[in-house]
Design goal:
The complex is a heterodimer. Chain A is globular, with a radius of gyration of 19 Å. The longest helix of chain A is centred in the N-terminal third of the chain and has 31 residues. Chain A is built from eleven helices and two strands, in the order H-H-H-E-E-H-H-H-H-H-H-H-H. Chain A has one domain. By secondary structure, chain A is mostly helical. In chain A, helix 4 packs antiparallel against helix 6 and helix 7 packs parallel to helix 11. Helix content of chain A is about 75%, strand content about 0%. Chain B folds into two domains: about 220 residues, P-loop containing nucleotide triphosphate hydrolases (Rossmann fold, 3-Layer(aba) Sandwich), CATH 3.40.50; about 70 residues, Alpha-Beta Plaits (2-Layer Sandwich), CATH 3.30.70. Chain B has ten helices and 14 strands. A six-stranded mixed beta sheet of chain B has the order 6-7-8-3-9-10, with helices on both faces. A four-stranded antiparallel beta sheet of chain B has the order 2-1-4-5, covered by helices on one side. In chain B, helix 3 packs parallel to helix 5. Classes of the chains: A mainly alpha, B alpha/beta. Chains A and B meet through helix 1 and helix 5 of A and helix 2 and helix 3 of B.
């Protein structure tokens, strides 16, 4: 059997295992984001949104839908990988992969693909929920899909890095609570940064989530606070840097080997 | 061909602890090999390095001629590992643990299910195939780890304390299974604290102590070095005082029990001649210690004393 064939079977095995893992506990993994986002749509979209009026030429609920979908993709891709890898470290079953004849990129790709799978499933569920409140039109399928997948890949890799360094279950909730949530809320999900004073507009530009939310909003609505090419450069840049760092951690065995 | 060749292997952990101080070891293909040593001697570190779970500090490891540094995947493909601690996902069904492990070695899913069924049947776990691993008994979990290690049909099976905490009946059935596995051509390296297990199963032995190989020999040669064995004799009738037995070191434990050290020169026959001459009948006899255990203690204590002088 060729190396490529062995790697492909191993990759599919990791992805299948990951999908089965989060599917078995769908009440904890898929249902909560659907309920949370339904509440966002009702409260911020319908009740409060109706008092706000238009934003960038769109009804407020239409304006926030892209950001809310992407917010679920970000948090679920991250949560899937960080909890799965840390749990494998905790139970030592990550050793099953470490002793297998696999290059590190297959291990990383397998976990990331599992995170993307959950991100996509949750994203689709949240999108379906949003259709109960708004008519979703897609401005560019290519941009929408590209940002959707790349963002999911990026935060899956970030979740992997978090898990490698985590030494307790507390460590896997610190980053989502104190870093990811503030970055997402301040990343233009609920507002256009053009509403901010000039200084805070500049500060907002340092937030990578802003570029993803705006690129995704462009894909759905055709409007963005950020140039599309710049958003893709930023997203791809982060994917490459974090992906390279994760590979380096695996090669050194940081957090997973003595 | 050598199944395993280790040269000048050293491991210093980040906290400065030197677990291995440059060990050399060879294991022939097809051998059943015991790696013994007290807790903290470096056995699990050596096994961890060979199976790629621990990064070495220096030295060379070759498995069936493949170098661990330059051909890590070829090395990994030949090894099956049964670690000391349970290291499977406790929430996964038993059969999935095996199917996934086979998948990591590139075995397609259909074939993986076939092999998983075969391994689970061999180890009497097929009835538990759908149970979550956490619901298995301790002995079943040990057998699950053996089944998982064999699902990709490794040429070298490494078992780190495989029968720890397992009752004697299951332990003996596991021994039979391991003997059959070895007879079918799989090289086996075993660490154990049950020295009876090593004596019963293994043809060669290495004793590791304080990060160094203290001894490496054929099991039979090693046991031949035992100068004396201590036996416990249960007597048929009560005895007031045994006094002394010429040529034997004897201790009376109670009215019907004697403890006698028998040297290789005297032998048991001489002992029975002496006892018969005094009209003492022996109802039963047993070793006070396992023979290997006696040697092991002598060697480890001798090695420690030597190390202390250095």
């Amino acid at each position: 059997m060729s190396h490529a064939a062995v790697y492909w079977v191993a990759f599919r095995t990791i992805v299948t295992k990951e999908i089965l893992r989060f599917s078995r506990i769908w009440v904890q993994t898929v249902l909560p984001p659907a309920i949370t986002m339904a509440l966002y749509f009702v409260i911020f979209g319908k009740l409060i949104g109706s008092q706000i009026g238009d934003m960038d030429g769109f009804r407020y609920i239409d304006f926030i839908v892209p950001g809310l979908i992407l917010m679920s993709v970000i948090s679920n891709s991250y949560a899937n990988v960080v909890s799965s890898v840390y749990s494998s470290k905790f139970q030592h079953n990550i050793e099953e992969l470490l002793i297998a004849p696999l290059p590190n990129f297959i291990i990383l790709a397998g976990y990331v693909a599992g995170g993307v799978a959950r991100g996509v499933i949750v994203g689709v569920v949240v999108t379906l929920v949003s259709l109960l409140f708004t008519d979703l039109a897609i401005h560019s399928y290519a941009v929408t899909l590209a940002v959707f997948v790349l963002t999911s890949v990026l935060f899956s890799i970030a979740g992997f890095i978090n898990a490698v360094y985590a030494n307790s279950f507390d460590d896997i909730s610190i980053v989502p609570t104190f870093v990811l949530t503030p970055l997402t809320y301040l990343g233009g999900v609920f507002y256009s940064i053009r509403m901010l004073p000039e200084f805070w507009q500049g500060v907002s530009l340092a937030n990578p989530v802003l570029y993803m939310v705006n690129a995704f909003r462009f894909g759905l609505l055709g409007v963005s606070d950020i140039a599309l090419w710049l958003a893709f450069v930023i997203i791809l840049g982060f994917v490459l840097v974090l992906g390279g760092f994760a590979m380096w951690l695996l090669a050194r065995g940081v957090g997973i080997k003595s | 061909m050598k199944a395993l060749e280790i040269r000048s292997l050293r491991k210093t952990y980040r906290n400065g602890h030197e677990a291995l101080l440059g060990i050399d070891l060879e294991v022939d293909e097809g051998d059943f090999f015991a790696l013994l040593g007290p807790n903290g001697a470096g056995k699990s570190t050596a096994i961890g390095i060979v199976s790629s779970l621990v990064n070495k500090t220096a030295g060379q490891v070759r498995v069936f001629g493949h170098d661990l540094d330059t051909q890590p995947e070829a090395v990994k493909a030949t090894i099956g590992l049964v670690p000391q601690e349970f290291n499977f996902n406790q929430f996964e069904p038993v059969v999935e643990i095996l199917v996934n492990q086979a998948g990591y070695y590139g075995i397609p899913r259909r074939e993986a299910f076939r092999r998983a069924e075969s391994a689970l049947r061999q180890l009497d776990l097929w009835d538990k195939r759908s149970a979550q691993a956490r619901d298995l008994s301790g002995g079943m979990k040990r057998r699950l780890m053996i089944a998982r290690a064999l699902v990709h049909r490794p040429r070298l099976l490494i078992l780190d304390e495989p029968t720890a905490g397992v009752d004697i009946e299951i332990r003996r059935s596991m021994w039979d299974f391991l003997r059959a596995t070895n007879a079918s051509g799989t090289t086996i390296i075993l660490t154990t604290h049950y020295l009876e297990e090593a004596e019963s199963l293994c043809r060669h032995i290495a004793i590791i102590n304080n990060g160094r190989i203290a001894e490496r020999a054929r099991m039979t040669d090693l046991l031949r070095r035992l100068h004396s064995e201590t036996f416990v004799l249960d007597l048929r009738d009560e005895l007031d005082d045994i006094g002394t037995l010429p040529g034997f070191h004897v201790r009376q434990l109670d009215a019907t029990t004697l403890e006698v050290a028998v040297t290789r020169d005297n032998g048991l026959s001489s002992l029975f001649v002496e006892l018969s001459a005094r009209g003492i009948e022996v109802a039963s006899l047993r070793n006070k210690q396992n023979r290997l255990e006696q040697l092991f203690i002598d060697m480890v204590q001798g090695n420690d004393a030597h190390g202390g002088d250095a």
